Amino acid sequence: MKHSLRLVLASVAGALIACGVAATARADTTPGPSAAYEQFKPQAEADAVRAFAALPNLPALQTGAVKTFYIFAEVKPWEMAPGIVTQAWTYNGTVPGPTIHVRQGDRVRVVLVNDLPAPTTIHWHGLTVDPDMDGVPGMSQSPVQPEQSFVYEFTASDPGTYIYHTHYDDLNQLDRGLYGAVVVDDAKPQAHYDRDYLMLISSWRIMSDAENYFSINGKSYPLTKPYMVKKGDRVRIREIDISGTEFHTMHIHGHRFQVIAVDGQPVAVSNRQSMVTLSLGPGETRDIAFVANAKPGTWMVHCHVLDHLMNGPVGPGGLMTAIQYESAPNKTALAASANAMTMSGSGSGQGGAPMRPATVYILGAIAGLTIFFGLPFAALRRVSKRGIALLNAVAVGVLFFLLFDILRQASEPIEAALQKMQLGAPPLAFWGLLGIYLGGLGIGLLSLVFFSRRFMAKTPLGGLNPSALATMIASGIGLHNFSEGLAIGQSAATGAIQLALLLIIGFGLHNMTEGFGIAAPLAGSGGASARTIIRLGLIGGGPTFFGTVIGYHFVSPLLSVLFLTLAAGAIIYVIGEMTTVGAKIGFKELATLGVLVGFAIGLGTDLILTAAGA
What we know:
The chain is α+β, with helices and mostly antiparallel strands. The chain has helices at 2-27, 41-54, 170-174, 335-338, 357-369, 385-422, 428-455, 466-493, 500-519, 530-553, 557-585, 588-611; strands at 32-33, 66-81, 84-91, 100-103, 107-114, 123-125, 148-155, 160-165, 179-185, 195-204, 213-216, 227-229, 234-241, 248-252, 257-262, 265-266, 274-275, 277-280, 285-291, 298-303, 314-315, 320-325, 341-342. Helix 6 crosses helix 9, helix 6 (385-422) packs across helix 12 (588-611) and helix 9 runs antiparallel to helix 12 (588-611). The longest helix is centred in the middle third of the chain and has 38 residues, at 385-422. The radius of gyration is 34 Å and the shape is elongated.
């Protein structure tokens, strides 16, 4: 009787303790401060580094009644291809994150600690979990904010190969590295394999809006590891496609395999077929099995979507590795030096053979000298006051458009650098370009203020005389045209300019408006001499030629931004001077219309230039 009573009391106590543990665990699933778990971070990161070094092998099964994993979402530098280091968003400092390897029936507890600069969650892709453990913001939980934590709990009820990954800002966070594998072993294994490997296929956006780098277990070829086998081994490879948008067709040389599981669910033996290529879509998993029965050697494994064998624009790279027999020399890395892949032209006129230097120099000279088409206006001797007001206003309109166009061009490299920084590039390029932008604008503006005060001739009323004003305009336009020449030279060096005749027409019309802007202050002032017109034309158009020569041999966004912003600063100053002149001439309504006409002329010729392919 006493023995039975003790058993009953022990059972009741055990039940109460179990209920208390369950209640504590459930209460712990609400978000909480991340600081409570920081003590576990060093060990979690060290374990992740060891597990990553062991890939493609699976980590050992964890012991204990509840399998507990600490997952710290954090930003870490990651070399995913030779020389390509990105600021990856990682789980415990590695990409992929540590593989969660458990047995069917295990109770799994995962503590997510968010050390990222943005909210995040974890979704248990393919696993059977409760609705509030599914990791979908709004539907199952609130996003885990920075410096907060969340505890996921579930029972690993179904054996198979699964995924865990972010489900917040998916397109951005997933391609930065927030994913890992979940492997649930059968409680009673149905088959024995000598090798049980993981192949986690993923994509990256390195300084690009599109997925342009691809990795196997976090690394792109030639940094990928081979899958080691011995003759006669039964091999299982768990393939996972966790790319954000890309499908992959994984092809194995020298061996035929069977798909033994789809999305974690076993395929009946009667439904299996021998294959050499397997297609996987984003979020799909396939377990394949084969016997290592080929002649020992190095047998290539790769994606047959050929641009997935590239690291950016060059290859071989990306999704490429090998099945390597232990008894044979390892030649996995040799393809990197024995083969070569490059992106071909797309038919858009880019990527062809570079133009010959002589052709480039002639094109640059023509593009610059067409500024003389607009300069004859400077020779006009008799122009009415009303006509001078209109010419001055049209020139101001042209300069307003030119200022808009210059600032737009100068902003493009900065915006591109900002986007690349958001995608993981080092921030130095962005801040450097921004500093050059502001510095060039300030120097271009203030230096002309100083120069005009000290060296330029003035009218009796204190403004710049027509010759000095025209020289200032030519200087600002020359700085802009130097950057224009850089773009011509760079395009010619990459074979991007194919329609030379249209370009000459386009630049001719565009530079004619610039020439008119230079000439307008001189119209009606007594007529400019041929010598003055040639001098102004060389100041305004000559830099196009020199920019073309430099751009053909040397490309620098910093140099382009510098000259564009110097030009913008100069043009801001000139617009102020010409506006002052226009106010003194009068005819306000006519001048307003002239500014609109000048802006429209500048826009129109620029559109023609764009249509020509520049």
